[in-house]
Design a protein that fits this description.
By secondary structure, the chain is α/β, with parallel strands linked by helices. It is built from eight helices and ten strands. The longest helix has 14 residues, at 141-154.
Amino acid sequence: MLSFIPTPIGNKEDITLRALRLLKELNVFFCEDTRTTIKLMRMYEIEYRTKELFSLTSFTSDRQILDYVDRMRHEDCGVLSEAWTPWLSDPWKSLIKICREYDVKFEILPWANALISPVIATPSDTSSFVYKWFVPLKKGRKTFFEDVLQTVQVVLQPVYMYESVHRIQKSLTQLHKLWYTGKILIARELTKMYEQYETWSVEEIIAKIESWAIPLKGEFVLWCYPDYPKKWKKN
């Protein structure tokens, strides 16, 4: 059995009893970063020296993955990302597909990820929305945001995405230049001491970042949603 084990993103208390039990019981782990896994086990006072830790990322060769799959089919193993649930969007989410192709039994432990908290925090209707993952680094950014505008302002569907602290201002400026008229919820430093949620127009969000009312620290979550007419209720 292969267990997908969620880990905390910033608050060490955000881990389940089931996850802690598996961290103690299992002896083989496939990790996004073995160094992070060692730190995690040290934090919960779990002996890691007797365990086998293997790096498994988007750069792992196909041949190496097949070797790992053979162990996954015959041993109880764990899969660990650097933070929170593995792996809603990571490049090697294809591991689920591999498990199905090679008849590897797996279980996915339930827990939160960076999607859930902003969904709950947004004042808009959350019965349906579009998840876009990370904003592209360079190529395709304009097309990406044009699609966001189409979805939010024409289809009237909220859109959720991640953005780096290094590019958040650039992304907001692009939305502004494309005449984005909806509201934006920004979430940052999720689960940590300075967790912050702000809901404003794109112009107001830009101004708050420039005035440092929204510090440029941590990872950012953007939730863009329609500015529904006051007398209009979405069915």
